[in-house]
TrEMBL record:
It comes from the Bacteria. Keywords: Hydrolase, Signal. It comes from Falsiroseomonas frigidaquae. It holds the Pfam family Peptidase_S9. Residues 97-180 form the Peptidase S9 prolyl oligopeptidase catalytic domain. This is Prolyl oligopeptidase family serine peptidase. Residues 1-20 form the signal peptide.
Amino acid sequence: MRLLQVVVLVLLAACVPARAENGVVGFAVIAVPNGTAAPIETALWYPAESVTPRATRLDVLSQDLAPGAPVQGRNLPLIVISHGSSSSFTGHVDTAFALAQAGFVVAAPTHTGDNTRDRSGAADLGARTRQFAAVIDYVADHWDPGAVNPDRIGAFGYSAGAFTVLVAAGGTPDRSRVVVHCAEHPSFFECRLIAAATPSITPPVLTRAPRALRALVLAAPALGYTFGPGSLAELTMPVQLWQAEEDAILPAPHYAEPVRAALPRAPEFHRVAGAGHFDFMAPCPEGLARVAPAICENRPGFDRAVFHARFNAEMVRFMTDALRP
């Protein structure tokens, strides 16, 4: 009986990602090959060997990181983050840091053509899904052989990134619904984006992830209305779905609600009272708040930093449970 108890304890310990020793988080920015297209700038946060972290600039943000430090542990779970339209890998730095401290490798690409520096391809959803697939393949197989377990991969997507993740996981959106939706709501964000884009002769090809995604976190999913009955039938993995109560960019009931209804397995659902669309992005430092007030808006009664402490903890808990071996 005692031997059985020891075996059970060993197995349970193996099921949980090892937390980063002393809270040290390693960091790197790599260029992921993308066929004939430009390489994909991708930031990596990961549990690091015990070294002294230092303040590291990430655009206008700063984190205490150990750039280039060796990875602590092998066979670690991987979380890939897809940011919203016109953002970058810095959009969710606090969430990436929290996941890395909890024992996950985190890969966050800056989507080529849909970022803070270049918005020329913001309407090209096919490029987004191809980039997402390329990052998974490269980090799992080539970045640091043995560091990532290719059978323990999850994803977090926000806004356009949530649509990217849904497609990567096997969702099949009905893009004909966009025409109907935009005829009824021409002032909505994506409808204005599409109207301003150069018309495409052929619809972009959407790409699935090269490996099975075992857990998804979706926040404020864009184009949610394109997912009707049966369109998410393959998404049988655990899903955590977040909606901002005061989302003026992707307002109810057109986005989170259709996704929630189409999922074959009821998601863990969180509707955040008082939150706006951009509150799923990292809290803004003072310098960013001055130059991007729309993204950094502080509404009376809502504290983004307080919310993110909960948001990150809930995601760490969900991913830890879902990505057990």
